[in-house]
Amino acid sequence: MNIQAMTPAAEKIRLAETDDGTILFKVPFPKEMKDIQHMSPIIIKQPYHIDYIHSYGQDSPFFAGLANGKLLGTKCPKCKYTYGTPKAHCMECGSPTEWFELPEVGRIHTFTVCHRGGEEFLKETPFILVLVEWDKVDTLFLSRLVGVDTSKPSLKMVGMKIKAQFKRNAKFRPTDVYFVPAE
Amino acid sequence: MAFKKTRDVYFVSGGISKFAKARPEVTFQPMVKEAYDYALKDIGLENKQAQEVFDGSVASYFSDHFSRQLMAGIMIQDYLGLCPLPSHRVEAGGATGGVCFQEAYKNVASGVMDTCVAYGFETMSHVNTWKGNEFIALASDVSFDYPVGGFYSGYYAMMVVRHMQEFGTTVEQLAHVSVKNHINAFHNKYAQKRKRLTIKDVRNSEMVAWPLTMLDICVMSDGAACGILASEDGLKKIRKATGKDPKNLVKVTGIGRGTDAMRMSDRPHKKVILLAHEKASDYKDLKYPGIHSFRAGRTASKLAYEHAGIKDPLKEIDFVELHDAYTSSEIQTYEDMGLCKYGEGGKFVESGAPFLPNLDYGLGKLPRQGEMPVNPSGGLIACGHPVGATGLMQAVFALWQLQGSMKKHVGDDTIQVKNAKRGAIHSHAGTGTYVTVSILEKA
User: Per-residue pLDDT tens for B142-188?
Assistant: First the structure.
């Protein structure tokens, strides 16, 4: 066997790279001003980290509910429209809504398996996102589904009964509740 | 809505910077200037004449996170030498460019300006792709949606899963869109990705969010685009400055815009909003829009068609440039725009109707090939999607189609739609929140 047959194509061999950049102290500068336009761009790294103070405001009871093992929606006392994800005011008639506890068991309205994600969530891939539906609730709820094989997604999962489960140590994020198969 | 008669608005010229993964050799201002200078040159205007010809501008860019420069709009205005003329920035997610085009239209139609420049850009290369996906996902409710796994491809995947469940749409039908748009782009020098793909290539590429693969999804880009709109009096000003009549005029004859709730979970399940050629009995059992359809896209189409006097879009429009950030959203949009009925989008693409008539896509003979070319440019999937520039890029491609000047501008007339008299452009913000449709016609 010759070496070529044993070696993968040269362009497929890569040293692992990061986007760390480097510290630049000096940069070559042309002697003649007319050559200056041929310079490569100087690219520097600017860190961008912030602690942002986010208030859940009128939706705070939802997160307090999760911390206490309760999944809360809202209901319009006037037109009876019912929200699976809370809205403090009714989108249908504008009235202030009231809190109520959603049923423990719902169904998968739709789902996906994320193999990639925003940087913050990459380490959690693959994960399943579901929109949950309940009888007599007009709107849906976005959540994670666990306990289902992520390698075998199929349309058969739509309509499947799923059950809410809560984190013991609340992080005060919507992922304090997640869903598991109910049957 | 009753549209009151306003002034005629002409779309006289446009320009696009070549979209690329990264443009480190320039900041955003010179990138916009590339598109702006091209538009000026095309009608024989010189830069120094801008102040006497133009009455103002509208700036389009989506994300302050991507640019990390607040008030980037004014930095373009000064770089182009347009200060102290009036200007403002618009933002409407992925539809920012479409909204910018319509705001420029309104400036002229209302009589506030005789000429208006619409320019837009996005620089998405300054963060890695997955951080970029995180930024984009901030365009979902940060209390309830983003923290669950903020990822736009995931959101669109959930929508198409419901479309598949509701209507029997298949992943192969989605792949048809990718094959079509990449092969169209093969003939467009402005496109970022020019590839000859097969259905198999699309399905075998890396799975991103089931059932969407890498080749079902548009890429991130750096790019800019620009358009110049004018009233009759505006045309006179251009004529005076250049000494010649602006030729090959295109008129904007309709604008429409619609909205929907940011959270997909909040979308209602009610009755279909009907277009002029549809009847309620077409959709007896369909709950609408749910998360399988875009109520904003339907509303935008309905308003734009009413404005332009279009009764049956499939028969009365010659081509469409629409927002295909995902193959799935192209299929959903065929339905919203009434090119086929709700539920028939998958069959529509499979029939060949949105393919160009004269190209070989390696799919054999398609029964309806070329009936209504959609994204002859290659769309977002192949051209790239520098958000604030995208809607304007579509407008410019549509302008060139109607002028019959594709060969001159993109270097190949393979993707020229023959005798195109009327085109529609469609710009869409995730996840179907803001959508614009504008109608352009040969004047």
Answer: 999 999 999 999 999 999 999 999 999 999 999 999 999 999 999 99
| CA angle centred on B168, ends B164 and B169, rounded to 5° | 60
Partner-chain contact B208 A41, CB within 8 Å = no
Q: Residue A96 gets which letter from DSSP?
A: B
Q: Is A13 exposed, middle or buried (0-12, 13-18, 19+ CB in 10 A)?
A: exposed
What pLDDT score does B138 carry?
Answer: 95
Closest residue of chain B to A109, computed from CA coordinates: B162
Query: Is the separation of the CB atoms in B278 and B149 below 8 Å?
Result: no
Domains in chain B, ordered, with CATH?
Answer: 9-124+221-242 (3.40.47.10)
CA–CA separation, B356 and B182 (whole Å) = 12
In the predicted model, is pLDDT for residue A100 greater than 90?
yes
Chain B residue with Cα closest to A138: B268
B52 min Cα distance to partner chain A (Å):
32
Considering CB atoms only, which of A43, A139, A144 is closest to B266? A139
Count Cβ atoms below 10 Å from residue B355 Cβ, excluding itself: 28
**pLDDT of A19 above 80:** no
Q: Say how far apart CA B380 and CA B426 lie, in whole Å.
A: 11
How many beta carbons lie within 10 A of that of residue B49, not counting itself? Answer: 16
Instruction: Give the C-alpha separation, B238 to B230, whole Å.
Output: 9
CB B406 within 8 A of CB B187: no
Strand ranges across the sheet with A82-83: A82-83, A72-75, A98-101
Residues 6+ apart with CB under 8 A from B83: B74, B77
Residues 143-182 of B with CB under 8 A from A: 143-145, 147-151, 153-155, 157-159, 161-162, 164-165
Residue B149, token pair as written in the block = 């796994």
CA distance B209 to chain A (A): 4
Quick one: how far is CA B19 from the chain centroid? Answer: 14
B213: its two tokens: 């693969």
Residue B134, class by beta-carbon neighbours within 10 Å (0-12 exposed, 13-18 middle, 19+ buried)?
A: buried
- Tens digits of residue pLDDT in B393-428: 999 999 999 999 999 999 999 999 999 999 999 999
Give the closest of B143, B145, B158 to A112, CB-based.
B158
Mean pLDDT of all residues belonging to chain B: 97
Closest CA to B254 of B61, B105, B54, B366: B105
What does the block give as tokens for B56?
Answer: 């103002």
Q: What confidence category does residue B109 fall into, taking pLDDT thresholds of 50, 70 and 90?
A: very high
